[in-house]
UniProtKB/TrEMBL annotation:
Keywords: Cell wall biogenesis/degradation, Glycosyltransferase, Membrane, Transferase, Transmembrane, Transmembrane helix. Its main location: membrane. It is found in: Endomembrane system. This is Uncharacterized protein. It holds the Pfam family Cellulose_synt. It comes from Acer yangbiense. The keyword Transferase applies.
Length: 392
């Protein structure tokens, strides 16, 4: 325990007791608290003794290590963030220099400063343990509106891409010191490159529809040996997933809901991040974000749940959904015109198409919500893109 410098505890998401559509279902509580906070917890290991110093000197050392900025503390309590407009530039500069000169604290320079801070701490040889108590150490409210949720995912993914293209790239940073363990480095590499999986994911979501529109199948005939290898690979993947679910205490329903949002976010937010991240790193084009508020009353739950706010992030999943639905209609129509011999290959093609649609079902359910109309511009762009893709 002497080498352990930090204990990591998860933050339990809590917003409403209804069934969540766009991520995992939060813990069920009888009454939502009026104020919900979130954070991370770090317990630092034992340092060298300060023997001989008096109480005043200890307080001075404590301030030098952790900082004592009343302006910074006040800014964390503001819902919209930032500092008061009455603050002078000279005072803010002085406070900023004081905050960044402290020994302990966040490492800034990235949208996802929590990932960057943890990565640099581990690169310096810090060791952590994971603690998941039965009673949640922290609780944080989550966004229930799809547009806000996608924008939040966009910010997180862009922060990971920024780290990947920076000098803190987890592939090579800290290799000379050798303090970062292999599995730790592997985990951080996965944390920074996951937005790039949106490109193959988008291809996989479109391939089943292409098969129906072009009357070609996605898979070739497999030999017995290749079939055995494919089944073995699938079973190993399934077994590792089951073990991970048992270890983390996540139910099958929560896992499936997370998989659905991974696909929705992958073909929307992550796809935009791949473009915006490269533009920001290469051309220096910065991206401005609108910080979404998570504070809402109980009466706004159902209203916020199906509210569709205009964002370009809605266009890619809507387009993919329309293309797959058009592919289903085209495939069934072609099978009816061809005859009985086309039914068997059609079943395999429909299986992959409905597998994609099942992942996009929460998004489809939001589109079909009666409380609010889907923005017209989203439908227009999606139909145009789907039509062009179908003609090609």
């Amino acid at each position: 325990m002497a080498s352990i410098r930090m204990i990591v505890m998860p933050t339990a998401s809590e917003s409403f007791s209804m069934q969540a559509l766009y991520w995992h279902e939060p813990p069920k509580v009888h009454k939502r608290p009026k104020m919900v906070t979130c954070g991370c917890c770090s317990f630092f290991g034992r340092r060298a003794s300060l023997g001989g110093t008096d109480k005043d000197n200890k307080e001075i050392l404590f301030d030098e290590k952790f900082g004592k900025s009343s302006t910074f503390v006040t800014s964390t309590l503001r819902e919209e963030g930032g500092v008061a407009a009455s603050s002078s530039r000279e005072a803010l500069l002085k406070e900023a220099i004081h905050v960044i000169s402290c020994e302990l604290g966040w490492i800034y320079g990235s949208i996802t400063e929590d990932i960057l801070t943890g990565f640099k701490l581990h690169s310096r040889g810090w060791r952590t343990i994971y603690c998941m108590p039965k009673r949640s150490a922290f609780r944080g409210s989550v966004l229930i509106n799809l547009s806000d949720r996608l924008n939040q995912t966009l910010r997180w993914a862009l922060g990971s891409v920024e780290i990947f293209f920076s000098r803190h790239n987890s592939i090579c940073y800290g290799c000379k010191e050798g303090k970062l363990r292999f599995l730790e480095r592997f985990a951080y590499i996965n944390t920074t490159i996951y937005p790039f999986t949106s490109i193959p994911l988008l291809v996989y979501c479109l391939l089943p529809a292409i098969c129906l529109l072009t009357d070609k199948f996605i898979m070739y005939e497999l030999s017995t040996y290749s079939g055995i290898l494919l089944v073995a690979l699938f079973m190993s993947f399934l077994a590792s997933g089951i073990l991970e679910l048992r270890w983390s205490g996540v139910s099958i329903e929560e896992w499936w809901r997370n998989e659905q949002f991974w696909v929705i976010g992958g073909i929307s937010s992550h796809l935009f991040v791949d473009i915006q991240g490269i533009l920001k790193i290469v051309a220096g084009i910065d991206t401005s974000f609108i910080v979404t508020s998570k504070a809402f009353d109980d009466e706004d739950f159902k209203q916020q749940l199906y509210t569709f706010k205009w964002t370009t992030l809605l266009i890619p999943p809507t387009t993919v959904l329309i293309i797959n639905l058009v592919g289903v209609v085209a495939g069934i129509t072609d099978a009816i015109n061809t005859g009985y011999q086309a039914i068997r290959p059609l079943m395999g093609k429909l299986f992959f198409v409905f597998w994609v649609i099942s992942h996009l079902y929460p998004f489809l359910k939001g589109l079909m919500g009666r409380q609010n109309r889907t923005p017209t511009i989203v439908i227009i762009w999606s139909v145009l893109l789907a039509s062009v893709f179908s003609l090609i």
